[in-house]
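Researcher: I'd like a structural prediction for the single chain below. Treat it as a standalone chain; there are no partners to consider.
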Amino acid sequence: MFQFLKLAEQSCYNKSQGVFVMDKSEGQQDNRRRKIRWYILLVVLVAVGAASCVIESIVTKKNASDGTIVYASMGDSIAEGHYASTLATTFPAVFASLVEENYQEKVEIHHYAKYGRTSSFGVGQIDRVRQLKPDVITIEFGTNDANPVNGSDVDQFAQNMRTMLNELSYIDGSTPQIVLVTTWNHGKASEPFDTVVKNLGKEYNLPVADIKSVWDKDPEKTAGPPGLKTFNGTSDRWHPNDEGMKQIGEIIYQAYQSHYRQSSEVTNHQNKD
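Model: Treating it as a single chain, here is the predicted structure.
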């Protein structure tokens, strides 16, 4: 770089006269040299920064050898799909399909979710998720932690979530794109756990998909009815149905897209609806 700066200085130098053509004093010469150095340094830094952004985008975008986006869905019964009618109507599938539609990229879903589990289960899945080396991770815990009957202390929940984020934010040289998801349908009991999720989003600079509106505004539309046969068993009146799962998947996609993706990359698919 110093050779480059020296050449730039010499380009403004009149060799035959031994002085800078535009300068009238030694002080002006020094000032001109400083300006040239700062200008070239600025150009180099901007170029390096742009290159770094491109490299990071390439590294974090796709880990699969065929270019497929590897997606890990972590959570409890909501992430496992209770009670969508089919696997294709669960929120991980809805989110993945939106990514595929808008970016023309295949998404491969891996499930690390189990009915009735708390955030402690998520901590136990860390090694499995790290071995997968996913490009995208959604973390949906807190619903069972917030359950007054068998839930977790909010401080323990925060500790478990922080453990997951510390271990999964950087995996073997890559930085997965993580989206945090708030809790499902425990009323006032959900609020302290949702606050933890939102605060962690700010602390780790991660997007948060706030799904409270899905279960709070029109629960009869987004949950139940009980007694329907689904791929995960018989539905109840509390878990999200296909409409609830659809709305959850859309909220997660919006959080993901606005945080990680350039708006110019998105197709006009949604504008056609």
